Amino acid sequence: MVAKGPGDAPVVLEMQGITKRFPGVLANDHVDFDVRSGEVHTLFGENGAGKSTLMSILYGLHRADEGVTLLDGEPVTIGSPAEAIRLGIGMIHQHFMLVPTLTVAENVSLGLASTRGPLKDTRRVSQRIEELSSAYGIRVNPAAAVWQLSVGERQRVEIIKALYREARLLILDEPTAVLTPGEVDDLFRVLAQMRSDGRSMVFISHKLREVLALSDRITVLRAGRNVGTVLPAEVSEERLAELMVGRHIGAERPSPQGPSPAGEALLRVRDLVVRGDRGADTVTGVSLDVRAGEIVGIAGVSGNGQRELAEAIACLRSPSRGTIRVGGVDLAGRNAAGARRAGLGFVPEERMRDGVIGDFSVSENLMLVDAAKAAFSRWGFLRGRSIRSYCAERVSTFDVRTPGLETPTRNLSGGNIQKLILARELSGNPKVLLVAQPTRGIDVAATRYIHERLREQARKGIAVLVVSEDLDEVINLADRILVMYEGRIIGEAGARTTTREALGLMLAGVAAAPAGAAAGSSAG
Amino acid sequence: MSHFFTYAILTATIASGIQYTAPFLLAALGETLGQRSGVLNLGVDGIMLLGAFSTYYVAYRTGDLGLALVAGLATGAVLGLLTAFMSVTLNAEQGISGIGVYILALGLTDLLFVKLVGTPTPIKPLMGLDIGLLDRIPAVGRMFFHQNALIYVAFLLVPVLGFVLYRTTYGTKVLACGENPAAADSLGINVHRIRYSAVIAGSTMAGLAGATLLINYGIFQENLTQSAGFIAVALVYFGAWKPGGVMAGSLLYGIVTAVIFQWKSLGIIPVSDADLAATAPAVITVLALLSVGRRFRQPSALAKPYVRGA
User: Fold this and answer.
1) How many domains does chain B have?
2) CATH number at residue B89
3) Domain ranges in chain A?
């Protein structure tokens, strides 16, 4: 990394005593926050700690109930993103703010005045984009339609958008969440260059390692309050995690690398070909086994066929070729209920969309699969008492923190919803548990809990298949790691015998050399 | 039966097909603009009805067709404001609020006609306008270049709308609001203002569609449009939200209508089957819609009200 910015640079932004209440929630509680010129100041905290609310206030998406914002010492009221942009504030949202059907140039110039009056000035815009992209080493093609771009390329467009608007204070809301390690390095290089230009950045992340590598200062928010500002040189990862959750949680111990479990292969996938939403094959010949007692992790950058693979195994998408067997039963022609009967538990990637019904209560969601079973209904009528006692047991066993069984599920935090889904999926004593993105967007404490539950299931002899875009998660959790790239498994590694760097290369499509050596292998 | 397809009959059929096409085309282009901004306006038929009635009433009272057209356009604009207020400001369920506008207009035009006019009286027609020398081109001239001015306006609006959507900064904003309003908002675009403008402009075109229909008929009657506005909505899907595609669909519909009409008057279709035959344009459109329409994706934010931060 580049040398850190000077500690005595002028303060660009000062937010003082910011308070924001939402119905029933105090999102920001008298938060003070400032950013100096040419500094990367990280906002660190769990989900719901108030980071995004604070930045939404700065960007004019929300209005603070109390507190003042000063830019260069002058008090400002920012009532809309338009005003924020005018004041030189840019924001890169976690969910990209791009219009997929428009071109890069159209997205970049959207909302700005044109030199040709009402007509678009595509040529001039493209020219300026080329200038910026060569100045910062950000490769983008102004004429490409955004829907054709990869996630990493889309983020580059977002950065160009901010540079094009001459943002001098840039807010980056979890910019690395969807990137490969290589892309993260590229991003950090661009950010370092922007910092040396004197631009300031607010970086939001909950990846400890990145935060320590990139930040000049780190401010930790917890439950809407500023619980301290620290320098990265002065804290360890553990101390930072502790500040974030407010208690000691210790470092996560990776799964012990025991002898490779010699159990029976409970999940067998052979030569699987699956078609994606756009009609092209996105899984192009995958074979894998998951044995009893084993956790297999599938790593890969979003959009390389993992989602379609998981959906095919869960019988939510029919494969065009190949076979899937769960405990020896062929899943061909089965629907999702059939896959369950064969012994599959499934935790989907989009938990709010596919995992639960948000408006249903906690107990209804726990019952969703088993409602017709004799224990819970008779002659088609639900048996309230046995349902309540069963759900109460599930909620306490899986530590689902909810005000009550009748609480609408959408009011729970992501971590608790995930625990609820896990509680439901494990209730049928599956042979195989398929978990997609187990902890995406989930805070550290719940992540630890969920990981521990998955290890426990493996110890009980279940075959666990984890699909995750989070490399650290896969390394921590899995016994074996399979890397998926463009619809194929292009490499396999033992979790304890590989390095992040070697895996990172594989994620980018560079096949691993057999011995696990990182460099020098041929491009895939 | 070859003599049924003489030269004269063929040109007359196509000429009247183009005339039939115009109101559908105007309404569908207006709907395209609104939908591209993310608003589904199912009240088009109602707007056409009220536009037709106000055009008729002003022409009937003053005899001034120019003034009558202004009335038709203004009616469309006012109803567009109402539609935008419900869909954009009140975040109404757009499928339902549009039907509300339709039912209101259906009843209101009938009531107003009985109260204000009473005896059906035709208005004077709008004369065919010959374009330079083009109308003297054999066949093609009679088919395409001897129409009234509104027909030319309708077809001229096809490239105009295309130009606005794809070549102007306003058009880019409209497309952005229809695809990802949150992105537009984050760049300082006033999503509500863009949607208001698109819906009002689109509804003004629907008002003009009503006026065109009225002038083609020369007289108002109850339910004059016979659901033409709903067909126009279907034509937007058929045309994949593109002005050229919408025009192709409208022409298909208009020409099939004209052919059926011609066959009926020539006795090719017996009177007993006339009602059945009258459904042909709709049936053909639906079939075409099923085969073509599914390949295209609608604007992602269509019919979804935009609420910041939701």
Assistant:
1) 1
2) 1.10.3470
3) 11-245, 265-343+430-522
Phi, psi of B67 (to 5 degrees): -65, -40
pLDDT of residue A4: 45
Summarised one tens digit per residue, pLDDT across range B75-129 is: 999 999 999 999 999 999 998 999 999 999 999 999 999 999 988 888 887 766 6
Q: Report the chain A residue with the minimal C-alpha distance to residue B183.
A: A97
CB A449, CB A254: distance < 8 Å:
no
pLDDT of residue A103: 96
Residue A3 has pLDDT above 60, yes or no: no
Residue B278 pLDDT level (bands cut at 50, 70, 90): confident
B-chain CB neighbours of A114 within 8 Å are 169
Token digits of residue A203 = 């970086």
Domain A11-245, what fold?
Rossmann fold (3.40.50)
Residue B306 lies in a domain: no
Chain B interface disruption, residue of A98, A99, A104, A278, most B CBs within 10 A: A99
User: B74 in a domain, yes or no?
Assistant: yes
Contact partners, residue A242, CB within 8 Å, separation at least 6: A248, A249
CB-CB under 8 Å, B175 with A97 = no
Q: For residue A97, give how far its alpha carbon lies from the nearest alpha carbon of chain B (Å).
A: 4
What does pLDDT average to over chain A? 87
Angle at B227 between CA B223 and CA B231, to 5 degrees: 160
User: What pairing do the DSSP bridges indicate for beta strands A329-330 and A200-205?
Assistant: unpaired
Tell me whether domains A11-245 and A265-343+430-522 share a fold.
Answer: yes
Q: Cβ(B145)–Cβ(B137) under 8 Å?
A: yes
Beta-carbon contacts below 8 Å between A and B: 74
Residues in B closer than 8 angstroms to A102, CB to CB, are 172, 175-176, 179
The answer to whether residue B126 is domain-embedded is no
Range A67-90 average pLDDT: 94
Classify residue B302: in a domain, yes or no: no
Give me the mean pLDDT over the A455-467 stretch. Answer: 94
The CA distance from A60 to the nearest CA of chain B, in Å, is 9
Find which of B35, B172, B189, B197 to mutate to test the A interface (most A CBs within 10 Å of its CB). Answer: B172
- Give me the domain span that covers residue B226: 2-120+138-295
**B104 and B193 Cβ atoms separated by less than 8 Å:** no
First to last CA, chain B: 64
Of A99, A120, A161, the CB nearest to B169: A120
Top residue of A110, A119, A125, A277 to mutate, by most chain B CBs within 10 Å, is A110
- Given the candidates 3.40.50.2300, 3.30.70.640, 3.40.50.300, 3.40.50.200, the CATH classification of the domain at A265-343+430-522 is 3.40.50.300
A367: Cβ–Cβ under 8 A, 6 or more apart, which residues? A376, A382, A387, A391
- Say which DSSP state A408 is in: B
A403-422 pLDDT tens trace: 889 999 988 888 899 999 99
Query: Which of A 112-171 lie inside 8 A of B, CB atoms?
Result: 112-114, 118-120, 161
A465 beta partners: A296, A434
Could you read off the pLDDT of A435-448 as tens digits, one per residue?
999 988 787 888 88
Residue A111 touches chain B, beta carbons under 8 Å: yes
CA angle B184, B187, B189 (to 5 degrees): 60
Contact B172 A119 (CB under 8 A): no
What DSSP state is assigned to residue A361?
B
Nearest CA of chain B to the CA of A72: how many Å? 22
CB atoms within 10 A of CB A145: 15
User: Where does the pLDDT of residue B12 fall: very low under 50, low under 70, confident under 90, or very high at 90 and above?
Assistant: confident
pLDDT at A520 over 60: no
- Asked if the Cβ–Cβ distance from A93 to B308 is below 8 Å, we say no
